[in-house]
Write a structure and sequence with these properties.
alpha+beta; two-stranded antiparallel ribbon; 27% helix
């Protein structure tokens, strides 16, 4: 930007080092600072923001776990339907891991012979 002198207005550039950051325009209404729009900085910042958002979204989708149970719906008569659900894994019972009522009634486990 170069200095321009007019009867009504004068423009003086504002530099920081070798970089122009704006200009003071003086006129009948007084001096006004007019900043320079740095298009390159705006493009780099917006591209960086979009890239970061895309990477975080992709990582979130990649690390998302499937639900343990699929869609649960209730049918007529109160029955429940679980879609895409696996049967729970069998686990060995511990000696002291019985409900209180089973101990009170001295109930025995039902073992199905193969």
């Amino acid at each position: 930007m170069r200095e321009m002198f007019d009867e009504r207005q004068a423009v003086r550039p504002v530099l920081v080092g070798r970089r122009e950051v704006g200009a003071y325009a003086t006129g009948p209404g007084g001096p006004v600072f007019v900043p320079v729009v740095d298009v390159t900085a705006i493009v780099v910042a917006s591209t960086t923001a979009v890239t970061v958002i895309a990477v975080v979204t992709a990582a979130g989708l990649a690390l998302r776990r499937r639900p343990a149970v699929g869609a649960v719906t209730m049918g007529h008569g109160g029955w429940v339907s679980v879609r895409h659900g696996d049967a729970p894994a069998l686990r060995a019972a511990r000696a002291g891991d019985r409900p209180w009522w089973a101990r009170l009634l001295r109930a025995r486990r039902l073992v199905v012979g193969r």
